[in-house]
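Lab notebook, bench 4. The sequencing result for the construct came back, and we need a structural model before the next group meeting so we can plan mutations. Quick request posted to the team channel:

Model the 3D structure of this chain.
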Amino acid sequence: MPKMLRIALFGPQGSGKGTQAEMLAKKYNLPVLSTGEVFRKEIKEQTELGKMASDLINRGQLVPDEITNGIVLGELRAPKYQNGFILDGYPRNMNQLDILEKNIGLDWAILLLISDEEVQERLASRRVCSSCGAIYNIINKPSKKEEVCDICGGKLITRDDDKPEAIAKRLQIYHRETEQIINYYTEKGKIIKVDGAGLIEEVFEKIVEKLGK
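Done. Here's the predicted structure in token form:
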């Protein structure tokens, strides 16, 4: 493994970015920075940012770039990220990409390919712990006890941004903005495309094979 490995995972919500990020983090001993987790933490603590983010997310909208950029760059300056990192949920548009590339840059952009129909089906089955944020899927990753988190015993819920109206709106945003990022990294020769519709382990193995590490 090289001294520095800076990766970002791309794909629509429900494509499995979070799961693959965790698996890659363990294999390469890299920290994961998930903007979604950062915002959910702020929401849970009812900070000013959390209240604003909650309102936007519940309407299927995204937090403004200036806030997201500041949070991500500030976090990436921490010592634990000095040997590399895995980004989940950032950058989402060309403005964020420009800030990231000017300040830090990426070695690889990993794209999980999945259809809109598959996204709708997966998210309809997704459940999240209201206490610790752990993610389950009632079809392929269910909790041991229905509606109860295996980790902390919290209640499993359907997030507002997993409801049909919010999903449709976020998919529109994804296709409009995030795909421009994919074109950018494709031109730079830094893109890895993997079919995200397969089994979790199969997707992971394909990513590792293409990383060549």
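The first helix runs from residue 17 to 28.
Will bring this to the meeting.
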